[in-house]
Design goal:
alpha+beta, Alpha-Beta Plaits, 2 domains, 5-stranded mixed β-sheet, 4 helices, 5 strands, rod-shaped
């Protein structure tokens, strides 16, 4: 039936190789090439969407959030002595603490970007801590930079009486309105 001269081993090897390549392409290579093309497309889309400059909504939200955070630490230095001191003293009065001293502004603590104001309070420990907590959470008066608590004895007939003094350094951004 078949003639042996048409069925040489070289022809059978070539036919088997072609059939094997077709089967391998259909079973493995086709899916791999498709997955590689999809990966390439997704990477291109990701690179395009990762560019923040083409997302103005994101930048606007980020700027609005940063402005809200900065507003917590801003105070108008022109009106600091009148408005902010009265606000701080009302917080202190609400906690039964006395605003003992507001020294004149030291030029060492003032520069172009920020100013630091020292305030002294007198009272018992728990009232001083409540006042400190209220000052940290109050908007528009600045940020508490550092505190120190001192115990001072009074020079009266009762030697056992001592008072606590809380010194607070408030830092605020300088804004000239």
């Amino acid at each position: 039936m078949f003639n042996r001269q048409y069925l040489k081993k070289e022809y059978l090897l070539i036919a088997a190789t072609v059939i094997t390549l077709i089967v391998c392409y259909q079973l493995a290579f086709k899916k791999t090439i498709t997955a590689w093309q999809i990966n390439k497309q997704l990477k291109a889309q990701l690179a395009q969407s990762a560019d923040v400059s083409i997302q103005p909504g994101y930048i606007q939200r980020k700027n609005a959030n940063l402005d809200r955070i900065l507003d917590l630490y801003k105070a108008d230095t022109i009106n600091f002595r009148s408005n902010i001191i009265s606000k701080i003293s009302s917080i202190a009065e609400g906690e039964n603490v006395k605003l003992a001293e507001v020294p004149s502004q030291d030029p060492v603590y003032h520069n172009i970007l920020f100013t630091i104001q020292k305030l002294s309070f007198e009272g018992d420990f728990f009232s001083l801590m409540k006042t400190l907590n209220a000052l940290q959470s109050a908007p528009g008066i600045g940020m508490v930079r550092s505190i120190s608590i001192k115990s001072v004895g009074l020079h009266t007939s009762n030697d056992g009486i001592k008072k606590l003094i809380l010194e607070i350094y408030l830092e605020m951004n300088v804004t000239q309105k």
